[in-house]
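Extended Data, panel c. Modelled sequence:
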Amino acid sequence: MFASLSIYIIVLFALAFLNPFLAAGSNTTSHPLYHRFRRQSSCSQLQYRCANGDCIPSYSVCDGSKECSDGSDETRAACTATKIRCPMLAFECAYGACIDREQKCDGKEDCADGSDEICTQPSTSCPERTFQCSNGECINQYSICDGVIDCTDRSDETRNLCKNLKCAASSFQCEYGACLEMSARCNNKQECHDGSDEAGCPTPKPMSTEQPLNPVNVGNSCILPQHPQNGFYVSSQCGAGDSRTACRNIPGTPVPDNWLLKYTCNANFDISSTESNEYSVCSKGEWKNPLDCIKLCPPLEAISMKIDCEYDGREVPCTKRMKPNTTASASCKQHYREIYLRQYSNLTCLENGDWSHRLFYCAPDCGVSIGVTILTPLIYHGSTTHQGEFPWLVGLYYMNDERKWEQRCGGTLITPHIVLTAAHCLVDETTGSLRDPENMNVGLGKYYRDYYKLENYSAIVGVREIVVPRFYSGRAAFFALDIGLIDLKTSIQVTAYIMPACVDWQATITINTGTTGYVAGWGATQNEAPSPTVLTTNLTYLDNGECIRSVRNAFQKLVTHDKFCGKSVENGGQVASGDSGGGLTIVEKGLHFVYGVVSTKITQETAISLFTDLSNIEHRSWLEEQKNRFERLHIESS
């Protein structure tokens, strides 16, 4: 499975692993398996290491099919080491692998040992007080899980059948679950069909069918240790089908000098060796490089931070799980700021797999415009803008009938993954149901309306969820409660060109009639076509009462309780089709705060545009509730 170049790399790795043993005076290099293991390299946590060094997917072990070229993935040793347990609807091969029950006796050997095709003519039924084997044979019901194979297909002594047995306190339980008299333990006679009753005994007697171990110098032999709590080891000398006692990897079993153990840890754990050396060797009666599995600390990742991690004096990636005693230092990236005073400088990975402190919070900058401050009004609809002047403006793109993305609404970025917009942009007016998020995309940092035009500072992000107030009714209720939120699939990196607008969550800002507000978008221009680039206009704020008094009686009912008005200055710009959902911002202490959402326009009152009022306590409470929910979902999914 490895290319020739990889073999040379593996040789170097194995030599580096065995070097400590050579320095200690061990004769490991004289071991006949030394040259075989020096060709091996590490497999990932999602892979299984074959006896010959091949790496295969973990899910391929003990599935009946030999993926290892030496067949070592389809042996009882492999099935025991990986703790294979067959589900109820599976057939268990004689050596422990699991295959589909329908493959039993189908004329094709699906178990590596062919045990699925040991068949007799199935009987339609077995007499009372008998057990029917998988191949149809009938045996005494008291013969199952007694250590002796009575069914020719071995189905009366499988782990799947016997695993849930509860043996009496005075009994001995075989490794696969069968119950025997306690006297069967270490009586120099194999009575569990897997030999586990004779494993680890003080004076083991090899089975007649076993191959003898390499000559053992009793004074230099070792005893197999306990498996690590969060992992296991395998004896590296044992090949496919090796039935020697030492190859069962049962703690307490004697093994000869120079015996090699390869350790594997469960997910989120790693080898305790500083160099991640996964082997331990028996050298003159003791295990060199004894190993354990240690808990790793979770990765440290934050889009708002620059994080550096160091272990044992060298830099390590922070995006992977890290060993205890790893230290991490963090700082906020540009356009983010630290808002709480922290009581520590670095984080340390502790022995229990937790970090000594939680990462501090870097809040994104908001409401900073890098555009020009002097606006040049156009004749009808707005002013030209510059890139970065309204970095919180987003375009909502929908898939049209021609399977192309088309901008129809605007929105305001209020956190790195939440967009504020109008409810009518998110609800299909014909059906009254929410639009499909999969048919929506959000363009951020875009200056050009065209979805397909490449821009240096823009980004296109998919939609995870959309939400509108429960009682929003659209046109039937004169677009009251016309507010909605979009949760993006991923948080966006804040830059000078993509930045949230500020939100007055604490309601500390007061604005009065006559205050200037700013709106930007790609709405229709004087030629009734959408603008190809972002335009902006400034409007005068009118509170709800003043707005109602400013329109004719016939239109006053359109100014619902949760609206305020934006009035165009003389010859100034107006919001138009395509601007819906965009935000009206006011400037407070040099920062833009979003104060309203473009909702509707009374066409007969050309100077008046209606905005959903974010200072409305009902809206502000709803926004905060949904924002907190979205934040929790992003934390849980990270």
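Residues 1-40, 204-218, 372-381 have pLDDT under 50 and may be disordered. This feature is highlighted in the accompanying rendering.
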